[in-house]
Design goal:
Layout: H1 2-21, H2 28-43, H3 56-63, H4 67-76, E1 78-79, E2 84-85, H5 96-108
Antiparallel strand pairs: 1-2
Bound molecules: heme C (HEC).
Heme C (HEC) is lined by residues 34, 38-39, 41-43, 47-51, 62, 65, 70, 73-74, 80-86, 88-90, 99, 102-103, 106.
Length: 111
């Protein structure tokens, strides 16, 4: 019973994720600007446990989650083992698309 429930909620999660993000196309050049103004504060020097831009070893296991999951977590914020990633990097004025672009840039530079 509980296994069935888990499988069903996983499937629901996957469906809701794909319907939101499946067709998302990211603008890496625009993402670099958002990275420079907002994300670099932590992701350049590894502040507060943030994985550094270009640190392939730190990014490899994260990238396996897939870009859409990384974007969704970055928009909502999350508490990980290394530290706290604030929602939208702490800048609530950013749109979800801007955060997505910044993640695409960050990931593209780090693999
Ligand atoms: C205040 C510091 C801070 C800022 C600013 C910040 N981050 Fe983070 N970010 C973190 C920390 C800390 C982690 C690692 C959390 C963990 O895994 O424990 C993280 C992790 C991530 C991850 C990896 C997610 C995963 O599932 O492994 C992505 C992607 C990310 N940040 C994107 C961004 C983007 C895009 C921005 C700018 C819009 C941004 N971050 C700004 C602190 C920050």
């Amino acid at each position: 019973m509980s296994r069935l429930f888990t499988a069903a909620s996983c499937a629901l999660f996957v469906i809701s994720m794909t319907s939101v993000d499946a067709k998302a196309a990211y603008d890496v050049a625009a993402g670099q600007k958002t990275y420079d103004t907002t994300c670099a504060a932590c992701h350049k020097g590894g502040l507060l446990g943030a994985p550094k831009l270009g640190d392939k070893a730190a990014w490899a296991p994260r990238i396996t989650q897939g870009l859409d999951v990384l974007v969704s977590k970055s928009v909502k914020g999350f508490q990980g083992k290394a530290g706290t990633m604030p929602a939208k990097g702490g800048d609530a004025k950013l749109t979800d698309a801007q955060v997505g672009n910044a993640v695409a840039y960050l990931v593209g530079q780090s693999k």
